[in-house]
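Tokens as discussed.
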């Protein structure tokens, strides 16, 4: 969607290569077999005619799906004291539940029926017949596979035993006890540079230390020369700008903006 990134690609022989390489629009080149070259050039003219309402619709549409899931579905199934919403992104949501078996937590028999109807009761739904469901069907192998690739359904991507969220894209989740992988998002820092992420996040979350970080090591070119660099980044911070965190370190109240 970002037209700035669109390129022209040309396939040329040796003889026509020179002018392309010396052009300021030259981007990169790859030698193919038979004396042929693939040359990637920046665009001469970029026509800015991408409808921005399209991008805005995708994002706001995704948010409606999320809000629908929370307020029109989760709240119908569970009382809030048994679930806690932890973090949400455009296309994912983290929740913690008071039991591994969701059926133990349902607020009523009707809630349980609503849940089970989505899992097992939609085997005979004809294509095109709209019946909103949030979970992938579990009624049979065919539908289990089909729904695993159906958009707008909430599929389990990760499950674990702890979740420490400090802010956007700053999350550590500990995997299941039987050898599950941990999950780490740490924007601004090369993942391998943060040693002992769990403890760092925990210390920061509890206010026992205000920052944590690490050293990014990489290379970049500058004025036709190549340099390696080391840069210390204090990115794991207790500063959270999207809401007011209560003393429990968990509950967040909205900002008062006048
Ligand atoms: Zn089925």
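Sequence:
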């Amino acid at each position: 969607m970002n037209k700035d990134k669109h390129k022209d690609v040309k396939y040329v022989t040796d003889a026509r290569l020179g002018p392309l390489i010396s052009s300021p629009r030259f981007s990169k080149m790859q030698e193919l077999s038979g004396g042929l070259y693939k040359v990637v050039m920046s665009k001469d003219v970029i026509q800015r005619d991408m409808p921005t309402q399209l991008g805005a619709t995708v994002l706001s549409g995704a948010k409606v799906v999320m809000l629908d899931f929370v307020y029109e579905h989760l709240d119908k199934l569970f009382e809030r004291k048994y679930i806690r919403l932890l973090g949400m992104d455009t296309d994912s949501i983290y929740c913690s539940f008071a039991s591994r078996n969701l059926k133990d937590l349902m607020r009523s028999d009707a809630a349980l029926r609503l849940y089970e109807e989505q899992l097992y009761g939609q085997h005979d739904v004809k294509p095109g017949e709209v019946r909103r469901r949030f979970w992938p069907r579990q009624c049979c192998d065919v539908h289990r596979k089909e729904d695993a690739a159906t958009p707008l359904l909430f599929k389990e991507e990760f499950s674990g035993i702890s979740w420490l969220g400090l802010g956007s894209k700053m999350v550590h989740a500990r995997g299941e006890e039987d050898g599950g992988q941990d999950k780490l998002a740490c924007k601004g820092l090369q993942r391998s540079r943060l040693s002992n992420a769990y403890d760092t996040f925990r210390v920061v979350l509890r206010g026992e230390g205000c920052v944590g970080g690490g050293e990014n090591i990489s290379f970049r070119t500058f004025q036709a020369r190549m340099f390696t660099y080391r840069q210390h980044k204090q990115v794991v911070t207790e500063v959270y700008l999207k809401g007011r965190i209560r003393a429990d370190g968990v509950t967040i109240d909205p900002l008062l903006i006048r």
